[in-house]
Design brief:
The chain has 2 helices and 29 strands. By secondary structure, it is mainly β.
Length: 354
């Protein structure tokens, strides 16, 4: 555990520029980020669960549909539940037997889904927090999961060359999908739930029709591991990678890969904040906020002292988890009715350590 922790906390940005296959909209190049954004935030320290246990690094965060609870998971084998109303941890759930990699609240039901190195996908009642049901047990570790917006399906990927889609009501495996490699960290449903995208160590992304299993698109936007994939409201994909790049992919032209200005830091997660804005978590301890239409960074959120490994968002909050054993709850300062630079001026830094 100690060696793994040293590796995680000590993750450094690669410094070499990386070319990407396919056609790109413009050449990559280092780009200086604007000044730090001044969003208010609360800082929450994770809690070790035994006298000799260290506080865990955070590898997954999720906000429930009401934005009232945050699920936090990491390398301590626990699922920690934090109440936004009470500003405290209310549950420390100890059913997993190894590193918990990922967590996702159901969009409509009081349920939380978690998975990790113990190969199990668990479904929790997010009101009673009673003993969870085991939805599935995989042959290898599960690294990422996604729930469709209609709440009907769950998708999983991990250390195998298979993405799986389950029907959540019954727990039935609907279909396996063959990924481009056997180490996959990213999976996402389209907004209407009809498409599934997955990617991993090879840098390739595959997209399938969920209902018939047909391969809709395949592309090679990255030269190193794909860390995260999200569908945007306009149907395009945005992906981020260890190769320090953020890419935009149109499924009707998957060989035309658009590139946002390259930053000298591995990109660990990306999440959409609205139709034109995404945030990325990076290995240089920062969160970058980007305008998609303008293809430029709007600024950064600073304060973490370790890799920002995971992000979650609601209309009001952006939650970031880090290898520094903390997570931060940022008060979002975006408004589409005013110029981006103006609307990103916050009310000053307000950091409270819980």
């Amino acid at each position: 555990m100690l060696e793994r922790r040293k590796f995680l906390v000590g993750t450094m940005a690669a410094t070499a520029a990386l070319a990407v296959g396919g056609r790109t909209s413009h050449a990559d190049g280092n780009h200086s980020l604007p000044d730090d954004l001044n969003w208010r935030c609360d800082v929450v320290q994770t809690v070790g669960q035994a006298p000799r246990h260290r506080a865990p690094v955070v590898t997954g965060v999720s906000l429930d549909a009401a934005a009232s609870q945050i699920a936090v998971v990491g390398d301590d084998h626990y699922v920690s539940i934090y109440s936004l109303a009470e500003r405290r941890f209310t549950e420390f759930l100890a059913e997993h037997r190894d590193w918990v990699r990922t967590a996702q609240f159901h969009p409509a039901r009081p349920q939380l889904l978690t998975a990790g190195n113990d190969r199990r996908v668990l479904v929790w009642d997010s009101v009673s927090w009673s003993r969870p049901a085991e939805l599935a047990r995989h042959p290898s570790a599960v690294i990422s999961l996604a729930v469709s917006r209609d709440g009907k399906r769950l998708a999983t990927v991990g250390f195998e060359q298979t993405a799986r889609v389950y029907e959540l009501d019954s727990g039935r495996l609907e279909r396996p999908f063959e990924c481009a490699c056997d180490d996959n960290h990213a999976v996402a449903f389209s907004h209407d739930g009809s498409l599934l995208a997955a990617g991993g160590r090879s840098g390739a992304i595959r997209v399938w029709n969920v209902l018939d299993g047909e391969l809709v698109a395949e592309c090679q936007p990255h030269r190193q591991r794909v860390r995260a994939i999200r569908f945007l409201e306009d149907g395009r994909l945005v992906s981020c990678s260890d190769d320090q790049t953020l890419r935009l992919i149109s499924l009707d032209q998957p060989d035309l890969i658009e590139s946002l200005p390259r930053e000298p830091a591995k990109q660990f997660d990306v999440i959409a904040l609205d139709a034109d804005t995404v945030a990325t978590g990076r290995c240089d301890n920062r969160i970058a906020v980007w305008s998609i239409s303008r293809r430029e960074p709007l600024g950064t959120l600073t304060g973490h002292t370790g890799t920002v490994s995971c992000l979650a968002a609601s209309d009001q909050y952006l939650v970031s988890g880090s290898y520094d054993t903390q997570f931060r709850i940022w008060q979002r300062q975006l408004s589409t009715g005013m110029p981006a630079r103006q609307t990103l001026q916050g009310q000053g830094w307000n950091e409270r350590l819980k």
